[in-house]
Amino acid sequence: MPKSDSSNPNGGSSLKGPRYRPNWPAAIICFIAATYITGALVNYDPNQTLWHTTTPTAKNWVGWMGADTVCVLFFAIGISTILIPLALYWMAYVAVRNSRHLVPTRVTALVFGILSMSGMLAMIERVKPDDYFPNAWGGWVGLRIYQRMLADALGPFGSFLLLGTIYT
Q1: What does pTM read for this prediction?
Q2: Residue 113 pLDDT more than 70?
Q3: How many CB atoms lie within 10 A of CB 53?
């Protein structure tokens, strides 16, 4: 009589880990925030905020709060604002699929990724500020990261190498 491969009568691996329950509150909050910011981004025009005009002529789909949020995000982190809804949708997916991996370190890594992308976009100095991006593509944070902290110390190549590694 041949020897069996396993003493487990179930026929499967006996080392399966526990399946964690979905974190529905976190998933719902992340999904709503991502959808809200996406709607505000899609319909954003600088003429919707009091930051650019005294009498806003256009209305954003999500109201004045969405338009002001996008305006502040474009001012602060520039084009990296587009990464925020993507990160929130990803966190909503992780909260449902594998809630054990929804931890503060993942959120911290996403924040560092967004900030390093702002720093890399600030390296493109030929882009001038305009109504959409008051501090060019990198935003205020990107300008501080690149011009104040890294440009003199590491130069463009070293700065891109460091920020690209952090972003990756």
Answers
A1: 0.80
A2: yes
A3: 13
Burial 74-108 (b: 16+ CB within 10 A, else e): bbbbbbbbebbbebbbebbebbbeebeebeeeeee
Residue 36 dihedral angles phi and psi, to the nearest 5°? -60, -50
Residue 102 DSSP one-character state: -
Q: What is the pLDDT of residue 97?
A: 86
Give the lowest-confidence range in 3-7, 63-67, 144-148.
Answer: 3-7
Torsion from C-alpha of 31, 32, 35, 37, nearest 10 degrees: -120
pLDDT at 16: 66
C-alpha closest to that of 39 among 59, 16, 14:
59
Q: Work out the number of other CB atoms within 10 angstroms of the CB of residue 118.
A: 29
Burial class of residue 117, CB neighbours in 10 A (0-12, 13-18, 19+): buried
CA 105, 109, 114, 119 torsion-angle sign: positive
- Nearest Cα to 72, choosing from 9, 8, 135? 135
Residue type, 24: W
